[in-house]
């Protein structure tokens, strides 16, 4: 005679069923598994296919098993049933530490705005390009202005052959240059730097060759009234240090790779003029530091060029200027501002000349 009861309540579906619907269990006092055979089959299928079981109180397992038609008659142990019915736990989050570089302090104050004016060659500047640069600058309101050299052309004292229809007196050139400097003064920048280029150096070379007696009497910084205007002067073949950025007219190279060669010369952040080209390059070193080399085009008039084919100039030279944002730490973040069809974009705003 069997000692098993005639009926038993399933622990999963909570339905009383005949004892024949339950598998036997020697570990249970009742001699039967707590869940009926159909519930065990569904639990096993769900456990195998989904890796976990979702069950609702008082109802069957909430998983669609219509695509599973293979017979499943295996008997689950109590531990397996409890494991299958337990709610799944989210996977532990990986222990990822943020990439913190404590030796690089975060910016703590407003960034200083730096306007970088490339070769302009007054009085042979491109008027539309110059006015477009001023339009941007008046809106942008730079804290610092840097002239990269060759601001004036000094054609009148050039040692090169001169076209008769282009010859101008030196005082005419100087007067035009002072007009443009006054326009830059009107931007009300708190710091202003004038770096001399090889064209400003034409005056010193001329005096050395033609009038050495006047060498100390005629100076670029005096002709341009730089001291009274509040401009700090850097002679040709020297460099200005602005925070962690070096600026100079040239390092003795021209062409499309002059900025990378200057970067190799300085082994540090460097901006150059001279080339009339626009390009920015970044290089790292073994210490993991990143340095930038940049050149920011020019603002001259290509029609005034008489020492090379205009097509060559149009192909390689770029109208535009440069800007930078300087942190309190001295790091300067640079950006070129190219002019395309006398239009440019600065901080997301479109300007037209």
Describe this structure as you would to a colleague.
The protein has helices at 37-50, 78-85, 127-140, 170-185, 201-210, 220-223, 226-229, 258-266, 310-316; strands at residues 7-9, 16-18, 112-117, 144-147, 191-195, 231-234, 240-242, 245-248, 270-272, 278-284, 290-296, 320-326, 332-338, 343-346, 349-352. With 353 residues, it is of the alpha/beta class. It folds into two domains: 12-85, no CATH class; 112-352, 4-Layer Sandwich (Purple Acid Phosphatase, chain A, domain 2), CATH 3.60.21. The strands form four sheets. The protein has a six-stranded mixed β-sheet with strand order 6-5-4-3-12-13. Helix 4 (170-185) links the parallel strand 4 and strand 5. It is rod-shaped and about 130 Å long. The model is unreliable at 52-76 and 98-102 (pLDDT under 50).
What distinguishing features does this structure have?
353 residues, alpha/beta, Purple Acid Phosphatase, chain A, domain 2, 6-stranded mixed β-sheet, 5-stranded mixed β-sheet, 9 helices, 24% helix, 20% strand
Helical run tally: 9
Quickly count the domains.
2
- Would you tell me which CATH topology of the largest domain applies? Purple Acid Phosphatase, chain A, domain 2
Give the overall silhouette. Answer: rod-shaped
Residue windows where pLDDT falls under 50 for at least 5 positions: 52-76, 98-102
Return the CATH class of the largest domain. Answer: Alpha Beta
* Main sheet summary: 6 strands, mixed
Mean pLDDT over the residues:
84
- Percent strand equals 15-25%
Q: How would you classify the helix and strand content by structural class? A: alpha/beta
- Computed over alpha carbons, the radius of gyration is 40 Å
Could you tell me the number of beta strands? 15
H/E element sequence: EEHHEHEHEHHHEEEHEEEHEEEE
Strand order of the largest sheet: 6-5-4-3-12-13
Query: Gap between N and C termini, in Å?
Result: 107 Å
Helix content: 10-25%
CATH superfamily of the largest domain: Metallo-dependent phosphatases
CATH architecture of the largest domain: 4-Layer Sandwich
